[in-house]
Amino acid sequence: MKEIEALWRDVRELSLGNSVRIEKLESPPTPLQFLRDFISPNKPCIVSNAINHWPALSSWTHDDYLTQAISSTHVSVHLTPNGRADAIVPFNNNQAESPPLQCFASAHVELMPFAEALSLITSSSSESSSNLKVVAYAQQQNDCFRSEYSELGSDCDPHIPWASEALGCLPEAVNLWIGNHHSQTSFHKDHYENLYAVISGEKHFLLLPPTDVHRLYIRNFPAAYYSYSRETKEFTLELEKPTRYVPWCSVNPYPSPESKESEMSKFPLYFNGPEPFEFTVKAGEILYLPSMWFHHVRQSPDDRGRTIAVNYWYDMQFDIKYAYFNFLQSIHCRSNLKATLHDNQCEDSDSGF
Ligand SMILES: O=C(O)CCC(=O)C(=O)O
């Protein structure tokens, strides 16, 4: 354990710096600067004044513009009772299990006309958490901006030129995210270099470097899915059959006041370790979120009740850094760290998480 703690310290001292502030650039870097100062050291940054020329920044604040532009296609909307899709939630199977079974819950995904999606997202924005019936988040992550939203394509650049040149490729996927403050994205990591542009509202990020993998207590959870009935306006949560396990981060960084103490004692490496990078990306800014970094995302809406972002996923290099991170993750179960963990479940390093 001491050795792994020393690694957290070294990474911060030698590469990331000891501040939890993220580096901010007032103008786009040259491809060479971006490669040298951020991609190679696998270090995040926020870039301002890189997308001021995108028509999206002004035209997407008008509902009429958006609904007329996408009048003929249906879009995928992720529905949950609480805004927590792809997250660890309790599974109530009517059996008094102690501790209660937890599962990895996926949203109910529905195709609907864009105007309906927009009004659903906006209407739940003004509800208090206790009155919520359904939270809608347009967050289909399969290159949806270039398929479902292709009519909006000319409002943004098709790629981020200085990033494409530095990375030596074009984006593998471009995604659109439209949500409100009830939706949050739980801690996870992606095998992509991510250029994340906020168009409207604000996104609040927590980031931890890949070397902090043990602090997130990755465990295997049974996969479950929400189903939503339009008639009853009720959700049901069912376990997938046959059972499928999903390796996912156990830590909820914002526990409720009632559960805070128990969460802190279950996950001491997270709550007592070095602070995560915590920052807000505002409309008009781009975040560079390097591959394999763990991220948790919340959002604050604009005055129309929504947050809109477009992100560009570029393939990462499966190079020596990737090999080191995999090795680090795999030594978890065999290390002394195991003794300090809450339970004996080990993360599944072959799972692709
Ligand atoms: O905006 C969000 O809710 C999540 C973004 C994210 O996880 C990503 O871009 O990889």
Automatic annotation (TrEMBL):
Pfam family of the protein (one): Cupin_8
InterPro entries: Cupin_8, JmjC_dom, RmlC-like_jellyroll
JmjC domain residues: 136-329
SMART domains (alphabetical): JmjC
Signal sequence, renumbered to the chain: none
Family label: Belongs to the JARID1 histone demethylase family.
Protein name: JmjC domain-containing protein 7
Organism: Quillaja saponaria (Soap bark tree)
